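Example 9 (inverse folding). The structure is encoded as follows.
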């Protein structure tokens, strides 16, 4: 695969991942759809898109995926949706990314990964950035939404860790989306008294599931084999930045000093950890 194609595919994948935050916030803020219905439509459309991709490539789902990963996927999607009832898209994306990476870094520490002093400084900066973002104040995010988004990030971090080394990641992801369908249906049934949906909200949720999630993951998996581990890890640092810029352009969100400083601390700190960590793994390979 040519470098230009790899770069283009990577950029498209990062834009797709950032678009999830914009689509969810846009739907829950500007349409009649409720968070549970958004979650169900997103998971159903993602399952459909991924299953079609597997089928078009001549593959089979079979027993792809597993229930524990599907539970983590559902927990992420549900908490993500309910968090965006109150959170701005930019803040939500930053909290999500910080929680995902912190979860995965914490797992590395727990399993014996040795950190250099620069990595510990980076981790401290990232955690300080998260703490600073959550401190009380006029521009602080709503605490309920913040807790939900941090939970979504932890769930996605667990899902990502469980998915490492999957033989066919697209098929595995499709299988997990399919298994998450009854879980999302149960959530919608439990919240049926508050159910509300309109055409615009439905299509935002469908785009989030089929395009930003399903096709986005497929594009990412296509580019991933051509990327070095360090590059694959660090390029994801741009997702909250894209989401923040997109929120300012399409949702009219303002860039506060708090989110700028928190972004610098969180993304810069995680960058210090991940670059050193993944570079070391490259040398061992």
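The amino acid assigned to each position is listed next.
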């Amino acid at each position: 695969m040519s470098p230009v194609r790899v770069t283009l595919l990577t950029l498209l994948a990062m834009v797709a991942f950032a678009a999830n935050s914009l689509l969810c916030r846009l739907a829950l803020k500007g349409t009649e759809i409720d968070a549970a219905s958004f979650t169900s439509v997103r998971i159903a459309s993602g399952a459909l898109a991924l299953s079609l991709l597997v089928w078009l490539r001549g593959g089979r789902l079979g027993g792809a995926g597993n229930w524990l990963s599907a539970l983590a996927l559902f927990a992420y999607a549900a908490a993500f949706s309910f968090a965006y009832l109150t959170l701005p898209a930019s803040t939500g994306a930053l909290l999500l990314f910080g929680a995902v990476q912190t979860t995965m870094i914490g797992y590395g520490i727990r399993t014996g990964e040795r950190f250099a002093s620069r990595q510990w400084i980076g981790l401290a900066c990232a955690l300080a950035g998260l703490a600073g973002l959550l401190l009380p104040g006029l521009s602080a995010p709503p605490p309920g939404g913040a807790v939900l988004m941090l939970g979504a990030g932890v769930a996605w971090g667990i899902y990502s860790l469980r998915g490492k080394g999957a033989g066919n990641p697209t098929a595995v992801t499709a299988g997990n989306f399919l298994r998450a369908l009854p879980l999302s249906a149960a959530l919608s049934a439990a919240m049926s008294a508050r159910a509300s949906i309109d055409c615009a909200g439905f299509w935002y949720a469908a785009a989030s599931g089929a395009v930003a999630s399903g096709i986005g993951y497929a594009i990412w998996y296509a580019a991933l084999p051509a990327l070095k581990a360090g590059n694959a890890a660090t390029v994801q640092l741009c997702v909250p930045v894209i989401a923040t810029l997109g929120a300012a352009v399409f949702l009219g969100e303002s860039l506060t000093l708090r989110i700028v400083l928190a972004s610098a601390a969180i993304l810069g700190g995680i960058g210090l950890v991940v670059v050193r960590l993944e570079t070391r793994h490259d040398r061992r390979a």
